[in-house]
Design goal:
Blueprint: H1 32-38, H2 42-70, H3 77-92, E1 95-100, E2 109-113, H4 119-127, E3 131-135, H5 144-150, E4 154-156, H6 163-175, E5 180-182, E6 210-221, E7 224-225, H7 242-250, E8 255-261, H8 273-292
Parallel strand pairs: 1-8, 2-5, 2-6, 3-4, 3-5
Antiparallel strand pairs: 6-7, 6-8
Helix pairs in contact: 2-3, 2-7, 3-4
Amino acid sequence: MTAAPLVERAQPKARRMKRGRPLRFQPRLPGQLWNDVLGERPVGGRFRAFRRIFTAVLFTLLCIPIQAVLVQFSGPAKNHFARFYHRSLCWIIGLKLRVIGQPCGQPRTLYVSNHSSWLDILVLGATLDARFVSKAEVAQWPLIGWVAKLGRSIFVSRNRGRTGSEVQELRARIEAGDSIILFPEGTTSDGARVLPFRSSFFSVADAASRIQPLAVVYDRLGGLPVGRRDRPLFAWYGDMETGSHAWKLLRRTGTRVTVVLDESFAPDTMPDRKALAARLGRSITETAATLRQNRDIQPRTAWMR
């Protein structure tokens, strides 16, 4: 019996792969501006920013008449309410505050800090019982100028002809018992470094009873450590507009700031204001660098600087 030949099955012809066009994703809303403003989670981010700004403005309008009445009376009530106001604003905008160390708390204390953002006013106002030294233009700003005046801020101009009288005003406020918050950099940085301290800012240091250095670093975004790329989201410098900067920042969640307060010391331990500026600048720069590296840190004592 002859075996039937095996019939090979015909192999299917391979389909020719056609090169298709690459996928091109378009932003949800057209335009570079919308793509930049919306970013991640556009709807939720916009709603979050609007809610925070609206709540902050409404809360400020409610607190202004209360503080206006409190400043007419002597006593610590106006200072306690100012700290409550700044702490509440930090909570409203979703900024978690972490403080390492203790404020000096003595009258006539000169607090020396680095400066990178308008957020520093809220952070230090919630941490310290002290007055800010601000440029004269801030007094003319709507709403912000009112808050600064009710907070008994000291306004100084950049006119060299008035430097002597303004220094005397600062000295008089310190001798009267007020504590002062000083930003010796003279301007805001990009958040990735501390600018050199100007010795001219320490011309009133001898009027203070204690000097306490501190560092402010914004170290969390979305609950994760902040990298160099994300620092401009917090830092407010150059020609940045306050409104657009706040809008981009307040869309985000999981933000945190860390304030490290070193031990205070007497101003007469330093020979002159140039040596004082160099010593404080070096100490605050090292502390801020440690925080930016996401490393644990403890407040420094006077003998360690």
